[in-house]
């Protein structure tokens, strides 16, 4: 690959991406444009601007993309009830295509010929960033310093930072004890004190949720309103997508909802242990399944559940901008036309449970399911023929097996 002339870097302002910024300048002699996305990670982003200026970035983009993130990425994913390996709500995975999209767009705006990211060569994020970038611009160059440089240890990184006067932040333990990724959907913590999966994670790892044991002793009831599969209000108040998720994070976190200690199978082949917190997403998933239970036909619901693992895997593996994900999305969105109504949930000691649901689009018929007199709504004698028809092939199989014994 020829040396880039201008690179757009996904920049957090942290030590690793600051080192990458300087490394790009020294290694390639190129201009570096930084892009910092406010995805709801809960950090002040202006220090990133000051640091990028200090280090000679030729242009600096800091953008609040929270509404776009929830509206165009999180909500479409939640319409599918997407869960990876039965547990993970894909909080890191779903943020990467948005970041890549903006990197590619900014590259076009600024005349840059390359983009760069800070993902390591061992993880999933390198795949997600790069597949998305190539899907949007097949000619873009992607630089992944962790796969190129000789800074193969923490000591070498620190030496490089000191050599180039890059500020090194330390916490009260002397250094970051684990790696953290955060956005409006979740927090993810990996590495260091979490690397041995037999050891319980220390409580200080958790950032958005109280320990369920310390959560309020009284349950809290909330109501979430849906339109066409998306949450549009809480407790009677209409809200924007990002505001909905922010409020659900607050409510879920207060009650210790959404903690997950997971050993997952990475796309690159190894297993890793992560601590995830998805308070608002956990509440939202429970509520969405609650409203689907009365508004979505059984056949459609079961087909969605069959396809969901494939859809979730596509997102986890970085194929958001793929034709197969878009095909599945079209089917999922079609299924949501009548997923409109309200769900009441009970939040208590780490749990979010549906306790009520109602909708003008409901398929639930009390007249048909009642144990009281149904006034002719359902003739129970009809079930006999239904059973006999469904039993026919089973009878034939049993008769053959008995004959051949």
Written description of the protein model:
This protein is of the alpha/beta class and 405 residues long. Among the domains are: 6-73 and 95-163, HUPs (Rossmann fold), CATH 3.40.50.620; 179-296 and 338-358, Argininosuccinate synthetase, chain A, domain 2. 41% of the residues lie in helices and 19% in strands. It has helices at 15-28, 46-54, 66-79, 96-110, 125-136, 154-163, 241-254, 279-295, 298-317, 323-335, 366-369, 382-404, and strands at 6-10, 31-38, 59-64, 114-116, 141-143, 179-182, 187-190, 220-227, 230-234, 237-238, 259-265, 271-277, 341-348, 351-358. The strands form 3 sheets. A 5-stranded parallel β-sheet has the order 3-2-1-4-5, with helices on both faces. α7 (241-254) crosses α8 and α9 (298-317) runs antiparallel to α10. The longest helix has 23 residues, at 382-404. It is elongated, with a radius of gyration of 25 Å. It starts with 5 loop residues before the first strand and ends with a helix. 37% of the residues are buried. The model has no long low-confidence stretch (mean pLDDT 94).
Along the chain, the helix and strand elements come as: EHEHEHHEHEHEEEEEHEEHHHEEHH
CATH superfamily of one domain: Argininosuccinate synthetase, chain A, domain 2
Q: What fold name stands as the CATH topology of one domain? A: Argininosuccinate synthetase, chain A, domain 2
Q: Tally of extended strands?
A: 14
Structural class computed from helices and strand pairing: alpha/beta
What is the level 1 CATH name of one domain?
Answer: Alpha Beta
Parts with pLDDT < 50 across at least 5 consecutive residues:
none
Shape: elongated
Question: How many alpha or pi helices?
Answer: 12
Residues in helix, % = 40-55%
Radius of gyration based on Cα positions? 25 Å
CATH architecture of one domain: Alpha-Beta Complex
**Largest β-sheet summary:** 5 strands, parallel
Beta-strand portion reads: 15-25%
Which whole number gives the mean pLDDT?
94
How far apart, in Å, are the first and last alpha carbons? 70 Å
Strand order of the largest sheet: 3-2-1-4-5
